User: What shape does this take?
Amino acid sequence: MLQENRQTLSIVIPVFNEVNFLKELFEQIKKYFNNKYTEIIIVDDGSTDGSSNLLEELKKNNNYKFSFKIIRLDINSGKGKAIQIGIKNSNGQYILLQDADLELDCKDAKEMFEMISTNKEIKCIFGSRYLSGKLKKNNYFFNNLVGKINSLIFNIFFSQSLSDVHCGLKILHRSVIEKIKLRVNDFGIEIDIASQIVRNNFFIYEFGVSYFFRSKSQGKKISWVDGLKSFYYLIKVRFFDNSASTNLSIIYSSIYMAFVGSHFGMGLGNTLFIIIFFIFGSILGIHFKILSSSIIFLFIFVGSLFGKGNGTTLAVIIFFVLGLFVARKLKSFFLNSRVSSFF
Assistant: This one.
């Protein structure tokens, strides 16, 4: 049952030079969210194209029931910063993040809200442009490719299975918002949000949404440069924004996995295997702390004592798999104990 004394839904919309889309966006919001339990928070991120004046005109329109807030930033500070400010000024039990450029449909946002508000087990839903059988229009092959590659890398780094980590349409329960501390000010905010949700052990559901791309001439702001920058953010949130114990584990597991790689190939091939296994070890160190990593390393070392040549290689692989199995079992066994941080 909806509460009379508080907002149920806060819709945070960052806006930067979107004067051509704001009227239609406003009409869509009125169509799908026109009730007194919803607040619309527009963060005008230093627009210079008349968006500010148009927003004020729309606010003066009395033909709506929702709360309408406009937060004006004097200079353009980035999508991520605008979202952070909007969230800080929100009151809703649920926070919906919606882009202003109409590439994503408010009807899908409404469906996502209905899903999360009627299922108390769901705390966050991400829209996905790649899952749906809904209408799509997209000519940007390179942007599309980078988005899929980034989602794949994110899944490897965080043991997830998301299809579209960059989709701007997301809805989060207040309990999720209170746990995460967003820090990225530009388009890397999508990676920042996803990584922090996963770190805090919330499950991310996905919902297929429609997608209608905008061209550069229509004001699209994200470019291939932002796509490349997203690789940096993936590395940063996974390998640097960690606790000291996790960073120590990453270094430790990278070293012993390089030792495993030394058992493969010869000459240049051997060097390549060492590098590949070193990288794999850094990912392994994220999921296993010092004690569980030591168990894996112990099994690998025992395996290296068996056979000669290819026989040693096979033994190392077998004992590595056994070590992974034992480490996972122990990690699960000590999950809620005092020593869980060491596994």
About this structure: The chain has two domains: 9-239, 244-342. The chain is about 50% helix and 15% strand.
